[in-house]
Amino acid sequence: MDFLTILKAIILGIVEGLTEFAPVSSTGHMIIVDDMWLRSEEFLGKYVANTFKVVIQLGSILAVVVVFKDRFLDLLGLKRKKPEAGVPVSTGRLKLSQVIVGLIPAGVLGLLFEDVIDEYLFSIETVLIGLVIGAIFMIIADRVGSKQPPKVISVDQITYMQAFNVGLIQCLSLWPGFSRSGSTISGGVMLGMSHRAAADFTFIMQSRLCSARASCP
């Protein structure tokens, strides 16, 4: 592995780190940067290059695990998380099964159409289209959500049906250019969640979806 290859990997890592936690599609931006300047497919091959863009997200997964460590320990039954401020004590707790329900739609669709996604949706043209449509979707969702007060203040108040519906909306993020966090937060807000609850649930789901994708390129 020469210095140029390492440098290109570092650049992609920087792009991933700067865009992962913003609703702008980190995968989409990596594809754009790679296609315009790095051209990793020319010396790695298409499959290896696309796989690298997925595996590189493991760093972001680690960051999410650190930030939400108490929540993950609570989901696994290893530590009881303290109730959030402003949330009734009688409110239940987010369960691991609810997170799994939220992951099912994108997980199943991703497995069924993995080859199609890899073949047709990783081009710079489709990514740019996804970025535009994703931005329009987020604007519409924000306007719809602002018309009524949120019914779900905390992630602990999310129901199984709401988790599944957010998971359905998360399927949009299988299209590079559609941000995972942007699509699911916007979808959650449209379903009556507060931005905080939607964001928390999004990143908890995202860590599991990304780790699944990274382990099964």
Short key terms for the protein model shown above:
disordered C terminus, 217 residues
What is the end-to-end distance? 21 Å
The count of helical stretches stands at 12
Radius of gyration: 18 Å
Overall 3D form: globular
* Beta strands, count: 0
**Average pLDDT taken over every residue:** 82
Structural class: mainly alpha
Helix residue percentage: 55-70%
Q: Main sheet?
A: none
Strand residues, percent: under 5%
Quick synopsis:
The protein is mainly α and 217 residues long. The chain has one domain (3-82, 91-206).
Write up this protein.
The structure is a single chain. The chain is mostly helical and 217 residues long. The protein has one domain. It has 12 helices and no strands. α7 crosses α12 (195-215) and α11 (180-190) packs antiparallel against α12. The longest helix is centred in the middle third of the chain and has 22 residues, at 124-145.
Provide the fold topology.
Elements: H1 3-19, H2 26-38, H3 41-44, H4 46-55, H5 58-67, H6 69-75, H7 96-112, H8 114-120, H9 124-145, H10 160-170, H11 180-190, H12 195-215
